[in-house]
Write a sequence for this structure.
């Protein structure tokens, strides 16, 4: 009996030890789970658009229909951003920008330019509203600008792209291998991203080459590139000579390239005259006029004195004009 009693006591002792060890392990695993959850939150907050969507994405559901056209622009611009996340980023950025201008502009006007409190606050409110509107406009037209830039790059490269494809097709390379070769060029071109999407649709999503090309033709912002892809699809469907088709398109696009370069030379002469007139001669005359008005002590436009107008022209007007001219020049310039 004593032996059985001792055995039972030993067993209960070990059971208590096991129970305490299990409780200790559970307590030790809680910080590890918390660290894992924090790492997951850090991963979720990697990009600005994910931060914006998690902060205000569920609260601005009524705003999404107002930006419906933006979804198409995002797809054509090749931005790898979700539509709702981008709209959330747009709204959050406009709010932050307007608040920053609302706080900064009155302080600048009061402490630097010596403007009274009430006009400075009015300028701050107006500047905050303008900053919010311009922020939304900037985010709205940024994908449009990228889509247009991608269109111009695709059309500029199109003679060389079709020529490269014609060489590969003449050598007996299949269409899948042609686009795989375009996606792995040593010098990446605009068509490289489009070719990577085609290769991804074929290799990862299991589409055939015709379906992948149809999807790319609907997504691309360039009408000429879409026409070329639809011609490739028709040639593959009908079993025609793909190399001969690509050689004909190369000659056609090269002729269009010469016409485009001639038009650009005429446009460049007009832009040079515009730059000299508006951004060189015009500001110089305004600076001289405002300097003379400031020395004579007159010519104030309400609270806008000649000194303030001169500062606004020097530090805001001329830089903004130069930035707009650079954007205009970039929009009109061919890549090749």
């Amino acid at each position: 009996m004593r032996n059985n009693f001792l055995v039972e006591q030993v067993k209960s002792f070990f059971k208590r030890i096991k129970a305490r060890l299990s409780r200790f392990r559970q307590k030790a695993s809680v910080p590890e789970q918390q660290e894992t959850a924090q790492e997951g939150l850090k991963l979720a907050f990697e990009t600005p658009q994910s931060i914006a969507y998690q902060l205000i994405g569920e609260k601005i559901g009524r705003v999404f229909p107002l930006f419906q056209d933006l979804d198409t622009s995002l797809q054509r611009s090749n931005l790898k951003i979700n539509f709702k996340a981008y709209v959330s980023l747009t709204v959050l950025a406009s709010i932050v920008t307007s608040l920053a201008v609302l706080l900064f502009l009155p302080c600048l006007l009061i402490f630097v330019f010596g403007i009274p409190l009430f006009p400075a606050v009015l300028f701050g409110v107006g500047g905050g509203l303008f900053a919010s509107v311009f922020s939304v406009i900037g985010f709205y037209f940024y994908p449009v600008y990228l889509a247009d830039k991608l269109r111009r790059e695709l059309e500029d490269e199109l003679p060389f792209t079709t020529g490269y494809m014609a060489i590969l097709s003449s050598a007996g390379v299949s269409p899948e291998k042609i686009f795989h070769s375009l996606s792995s060029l040593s010098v990446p071109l605009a068509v490289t991203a489009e070719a990577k999407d085609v290769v991804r649709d074929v290799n990862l999503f299991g589409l055939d080459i015709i379906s992948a090309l149809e999807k790319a033709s609907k997504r691309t912002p360039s009408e000429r590139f879409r026409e070329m892809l639809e011609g490739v699809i028709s040639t593959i469907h009908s079993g025609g000579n793909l190399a001969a088709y690509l050689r004909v398109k190369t000659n056609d696009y090269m002729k269009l390239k010469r016409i485009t370069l001639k038009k650009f030379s005429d446009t460049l002469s007009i832009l040079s005259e515009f730059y000299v007139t508006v951004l060189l001669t015009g500001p110089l005359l305004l600076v001289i006029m405002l300097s003379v008005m400031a020395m004579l002590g007159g010519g104030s436009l309400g609270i806008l004195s000649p000194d303030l107008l001169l500062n606004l022209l020097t530090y805001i007007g001329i830089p903004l004009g130069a930035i707009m001219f650079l954007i205009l020049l970039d929009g009109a310039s061919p890549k090749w």
User: Anything to note?
Assistant: Residues 262-336 form one domain. DSSP finds eleven helices and no strands in the chain. The CA atoms of residues 261 and 317 lie 32 Å apart. Confidence is low (pLDDT under 50) at residues 27-45.
